Amino acid sequence: MQIIQKLTVVSNPTRTFEVGTEIGGREVIEIAQVGATFEDRVHSEYVIFDENNNLISSIENCPVIVDYKEIVEHDETEPTPVSNTNYRGEYKPF
């Protein structure tokens, strides 16, 4: 599963929101895309929440750069390694 790790709003000045950082004394816990696609247009919107699930910011219809992070959900299993060697060819026990 992928989550949004970092959102950069391409504006002047550029604003960056990243999970785990603080904005105005509030820690960014979640960045979510909540836009919608309509027949004649696309509404682009991202929301940023703090540790109490309160809204920090909402970004609507702005150019953004989105960085995603792959996470493992609780009910998923960890991937099984396919080799006992690292990228240098050295043997590493499982």
- Describe the largest sheet: 4 strands, antiparallel
Number of helices: 0
Helix content: under 10%
Radius of gyration based on Cα positions: 18 Å
Number-wise, the strands total 9
- Form type: globular
Quaternary structure type: single chain
Beta-strand percentage range: over 45%
Order of strands, main sheet, comes to: 3-4-7-8
* Distance between the first and last residues' Cα: 25 Å
Number of domains: 1
Overall pLDDT level: 86
Structure description:
By secondary structure, the chain is an all-beta fold. It has one domain (2-70). It is built from no helices and nine strands. The strands form three sheets. A four-stranded antiparallel beta sheet has the order 3-4-7-8, with no helix packed on it. Strands 2-1-9 form a three-stranded antiparallel beta sheet, with no helix packed on it. A hairpin with a 4-residue loop joins strand 5 (36-37) and strand 6. The chain is globular, with a radius of gyration of 18 Å. The mean pLDDT is 86.
Labels describing this entry:
94 residues; three-stranded antiparallel beta sheet; four-stranded antiparallel beta sheet; mainly beta
Task: Describe the structure concisely for a colleague.
The chain is mainly β and 94 residues long.
What is the element layout, followed by pairings?
Blueprint: E1 2-9, E2 15-18, E3 22-23, E4 26-33, E5 36-37, E6 42-43, E7 45-50, E8 55-60, E9 64-70
Antiparallel strand pairs: 1-2, 1-9, 3-4, 4-7, 5-6, 7-8
